[in-house]
Amino acid sequence: MKRIYLIITASIVILLLVDCKKGENDPFISLISRTSRLKGEWELVEVSENRDITYLGDHLYIEYSYSNSYITEKYTSSWSNDVETYQTKYNLSIVFEDDGLYNLSEEIEDTLYTIEGGWMWSTKSNELEVKKKEAIILFGKKFEIDKINEKYSNFYTGELNNGSLLYVDELRNNKLVIKTDNTYKNESGFEINHVGYRTYEKIK
Question: In this structure, are residues 170 and 136 in contact, taking their beta carbons and an 8 Å threshold?
Fold first, then answer.
């Protein structure tokens, strides 16, 4: 009887620990909840994404990568043999608080965009094809734009009501990977496929 009790107790503990694993690449067993692992400030360190755009037989393919505060875009197309490459100064950080608030800062060249709002874990949704705590939902409440190099900063403050969904592929104590896999089509034949990953590192 004691042996059976120990087996049952061990099974319950394992189930509780494994329940902390929601993303495909989360640690199999973790003593720390997903919310506790998410709390803190995260900084973008790696981008591996591509957009595949087709329209009326034409094809445009864009690859995105990130290194040393610059995002690189590489363009190839069906109408040209040339490969065009562009670099843009880019930094992105986001702070998740355990009280359900977040703050996002995005720097593109000389412009700083900041968003403040609330966040929550997703519930199971067959329509969105998302499981419980598989994605983060962001609700923006305050949006500001600041021209960094101007003598007087220009601010725009507005309300953002619709939620953004971030699919969490991996969440560890110091690593967060957001997965993108979106397809857009319209009746005229225009189609965009956007897939890839963005990796963040916890800085505090």
Answer: no
